[in-house]
Specification:
Layout (H helix, E strand, L loop, with lengths): L6 H32 L4 H25 L5 H21 L5 H28 L6 H29 L2 H22 L8 H4 L2
Helix pairs in contact: 1-2, 1-4, 1-5, 1-6, 2-4, 3-4, 3-6, 4-5
Length: 199
């Protein structure tokens, strides 16, 4: 996993899994509470708006399944990380009490981050040879578990100290940074035999 050929690949999937889950779980776990606490919505409205964002995520996963073999892995991961990150940065920088803007921008971000949630499952096994494929995929996905613990706690800390606008800025910055890193690290595997990709 850390040899000459595979170190770059290992770093790329660790970044994808960690950044995706950090943003995904950070937003999903806290969104209803943010609607309740900072936008003063009732429980039913908060859950309904959270459902809108979850539905956008479902559409993102469907779109990913339709596009993942038509677009290069590097282009896809970079584009969706940047799109998600820029949506969150815009929301954080121009933070307002306009709930419609919040729902739209969070849903757009969640739509795009859902691409990487599914795309990581496709890309990770492609970059390792059979002898280490299971171990490499397990090690990469473990970063998702770590991020799912860290993400909600980061939100809690930021909400207490900085406010809700900074939650979006931090997660937006994470997604943008991940997009730039995967642009440099991801190996394209489209339409290539596994034996060719991972000797």
């Amino acid at each position: 996993m850390f040899g000459t050929i595979y170190l770059r690949r290992t770093l790329s999937v660790w970044i994808i899994w960690f950044a995706t889950s950090l943003v995904n779980f950070g937003i999903a776990a806290w969104l209803p509470q943010m609607y309740r606490s900072f936008y003063h919505l009732d429980v039913a409205s908060a859950l309904q708006l959270s459902f809108v964002t979850s539905a956008a995520g479902l559409l993102g996963t469907i779109a990913c399944t339709l596009l993942i073999d038509r677009v290069s892995r590097r282009t896809l991961f970079t584009a969706v990380f940047l799109a998600s990150g820029l949506s969150l940065l815009c929301l954080g920088a121009a933070f307002s009490q306009n709930i419609a803007s919040v729902v739209v921008l969070v849903s757009v971000a969640y739509f795009f981050i859902s691409f990487t949630s599914i795309g990581a499952y496709v890309y990770t096994p492609e970059i390792y040879p059979t002898r280490i494929r299971a171990f490499g995929a397990a090690a990469a996905s473990s970063w998702a578990r770590i991020a799912s613990i860290v993400g909600p706690n980061i939100v809690a800390a930021i909400l207490v100290t900085q406010g809700v606008g900074w939650v979006f800025i931090v997660f937006g910055a994470v997604a943008v940074l991940a997009g730039l890193l995967v642009l440099a690290l991801v190996v394209d595997t489209n339409s290539r035999l596994l034996e060719e990709v991972s000797p």
